[in-house]
Amino acid sequence: MKRPIVLLTSVLWLATVALVHAQALPSARPEQVGLSPERLGAVVATLRADAEKGQIPGAVLVVARHGKVALFETVGVLDPQTKAPMTKDAIFRIYSMTKPITSVAVMMLVEEGRIALGDPVAKYLPQIAGMKVGVEQPGTDGKPALELVAPRRPMTVQDLLRHTSGLTYGVFGTGLVKKQYLEAKLFDYGSNAEFVDRLAKLPLANQPGTTWDYSHSTDVLGRIVEVVANKSLYEFQKERILDPLGMKETTYYVGDPSKHARVAEPFPNDRTIGIDAEFFDPRVVQKWESGGGGLVGTVMDYARFCQMLLNGGTLDGKRLLGPKTLAYMGADHLDASIAPGTYLPGPGFGFGLGFAVRRDAGVASMQGSVGELNWGGAGGTYFWVDPKEDMFVVLAMQSPKHRAYYRPLLKNMVYGAVVKPNGK
Q1: What is the predicted pLDDT for the residue at 20?
Q2: In terms of Cα–Cα distance, which of 79, 94, 71, 66 is closest to 9?
Q3: Does residue 224 carry a pLDDT above 70?
Q4: Mean pLDDT taken over the chain
């Protein structure tokens, strides 16, 4: 069984070299960066077998270490309806992997002194000041009723970055406040300004600064960027992040008809990402540029973003953030006073400014290193950056049903392929 996997990895590496060279990212054989070709081949073989048996439509995987891409491979199909094979330039809905990009945009403005993390959000968006906290109390009929109380302190920009703002999502979980978020139809694609106006009429789910709750916080950050920079969120991201990093395929909508066939699709029965939330069609251009979940792009584009994070804020001689700023983003910003709520980072992880941060070598049910940064998208995409091992990994698929299954599987298999820990 070993010989076919070794041959497979040799073929994969040759294909990787060709495309990575075109994308201007350095490449290396796995063994040159302390990775086992055979074990990386087993990762690809596992994904391919799952695609062949119909568990996932297809996927694209990148593994890079010491600044060089060691694996860049596809499995399965791009679109289950057309049966077109998966391609390395497939365009994926990355959903919440948008959040780290928007968070970097905010921190660029923080470095310039135009935003302060301790500022009340209402300084930039005055309508937020009127939001009350919804507290469920027993009603006279025995059913829960919502009581609105004043916030004990203002929501801050730091709260938005670490999801302690008091805001929530309506599509994950239940409760009277979440129900109101659903009924407000916040995903109906207005502009960011219109979105914040609608959001400000709703209650908060928690007192600001008390609870980690996954939320529309990063969407609000996107509007703050617009107000401070006096341009649309995408204009700022494109000018300051996407273009400098060479992320040419990353955008909010795929308006060019010649690219429509490159959009990866899920199975028809696997298009739900939450309550009343279905996959959006990026081919239909809308007004909303969701800083928390609206970007689409290729795996190699996101790989360039990950390499910038791993490099301490720079790539190809272009610096986006200072290394101290990035280290601060990668610190754990949660303390014992903050309740975990429905805590998506999981055991062993804290949360920084835009992504989960590993704080324990053990505890979690998957391998990793203290200081690792990671996050995923509801559609099935996932990334992690491991400074200790000088490594990053990006997986993209469109299968929300199986997103939680593949994250630990992938991490344990990839770390199993590290044969020279911490060294070159």
Answers
A1: 42
A2: 71
A3: yes
A4: 92
| pLDDT single digits (tens) 253-290 | 999 999 999 999 999 999 988 777 788 999 999 999 99
Q: Count other C-beta atoms under 10 Å from residue 58's C-beta.
A: 26
Q: What's this model's pTM, rounded to 2 decimal places?
A: 0.93
Instruction: Identify whether the C-beta of residue 213 lies closer than 8 Å to the C-beta of residue 340.
Output: no
